[in-house]
Design goal:
Length: 82
């Protein structure tokens, strides 16, 4: 099973104030997603070592191999803004 940072209500264009879904009219959280999901257009997805919060830290899974432009299965964004 793949886990993707962008596929949640927090990155959906239908998320309104107070975490209220504009389509379904219910309160949601970051762990929710649905068939009406629409990615926010301004979300920047640049997954590589330089944009990883773990790059050059003790929590990096591959400190000897990590380099700009590389990607691994442990990538975590430094910031996700929409």
């Amino acid at each position: 099973m793949s886990i993707r940072i962008g596929n949640s209500c927090i990155n959906c264009a239908n998320l309104g104030a107070n975490e209220l879904c504009k389509v379904h009219g219910v309160k949601v959280s970051t762990s929710y997603t649905c068939d009406s999901f629409e990615m926010r257009a301004a979300l920047k997805n640049d997954p590589n070592c330089v944009s990883c919060v773990r790059y050059e830290t003790d929590s990096c899974a591959n400190p000897q191999k990590a380099a700009p432009g590389m990607l691994c299965s442990q990538w975590a964004p430094q910031s996700a803004q929409a």
